Automatic annotation (TrEMBL):
InterPro entries: HMP/thiamine-bd, MTH1187/YkoF-like, Thiamin/HMP-bd_put_YkoF. Gene3D superfamilies: 3.30.70.930. Coiled coil: none annotated. SUPFAM superfamilies: MTH1187/YkoF-like. The gene is ykoF. The lineage of its organism: Bacteria, Bacillati, Bacillota, Bacilli, Bacillales. Residues 13-91, 118-196 form the Thiamin/hydroxymethyl pyrimidine-binding YkoF putative domain. Thiamine binds at I19, T51. GO terms for molecular function: thiamine binding. This is HMP/thiamine-binding protein YkoF.
């Protein structure tokens, strides 16, 4: 890993995530999802706890959605949890693949998949005194986009087709930061193919 400090001006989006399939063949599902997605536009590393991905925003969201969809397509009940980050002052410019072209490599392969997902997200606009206004605005955006599910402590509930939920997450991640406040963290939990989803899936 290279380690030149970028002083928080870097456009690199990082995502650290885990997939937990509630199935006996969880190893096959995790490894299968990671290998079926085209990861050529992101830097990625998997360990025993999670996987980290770094790259341009569009490629991180494109690759993450494909990985989740490939795990979901097995039919197993799968949980995804991830932390997205951009603009961290302590971040480094290495392992980023920023030179990649803006052509999505997974979207053509997964665009026809349909998958209901129930999700909870949290926004953390770092060092921004107006953070509550930003959070309320983004919750309003979720309502306008038709993916809002319910209010709750410490997160907001989203649900719907995975393409709509991911599109919202990418949009809100773009809008909840600014030139003055570059550092943003977003947490996302998803539950897929859950027996609790009566009629929605
Ligand atoms: C996305 C993602 N990356 C890594 C792990 C950790 N993990 C748990 S079991 C397993 C397969 C056997 O090594 C791995 C890699 C995870 N759960 N999800």
């Amino acid at each position: 890993m290279k380690s030149s400090l970028s002083c928080g001006t870097s456009p690199i989006v990082g995502l650290r995530f885990s997939i937990h399939p509630m199935a006996d063949n969880f190893v096959e599902i995790i490894k299968g999802a990671l290998s079926k997605a085209d990861t050529s536009n992101v830097w990625m590393h998997t360990d025993d706890v999670s996987t980290v991905m770094r790259g341009k925003e569009i490629h991180v969201f494109d690759t993450a959605k494909a990985i989740v969809l490939h795990a979901a397509a097995t039919g197993a009940h799968v949980a995804f949890n991830g932390t997205f980050s951009i603009g961290c002052p302590g971040d480094t410019t290495g392992d980023s693949y920023l030179e990649k072209e803006d052509v999505l490599v997974n979207e053509p392969n997964v665009k026809d998949y349909r998958q209901y997902v129930s999700s909870q997200f949290g926004l953390y606009p770092m060092n921004n005194p107006d953070y509550m206004a930003i959070i309320y605005k983004e919750v309003e955006r979720a309502k306008e986009c038709g993916v809002f599910n319910e209010s709750m402590h410490y997160a907001s509930g989203l649900h719907g087709d995975i393409h709509d939920v991911f599109a919202f997450l990418e949009e809100t991640f773009m809008h909840a930061r600014s030139e003055q406040n570059k550092h943003l963290v977003m947490t996302v939990n998803m539950s897929i193919n859950s027996p609790s989803h009566k009629g929605g899936s």
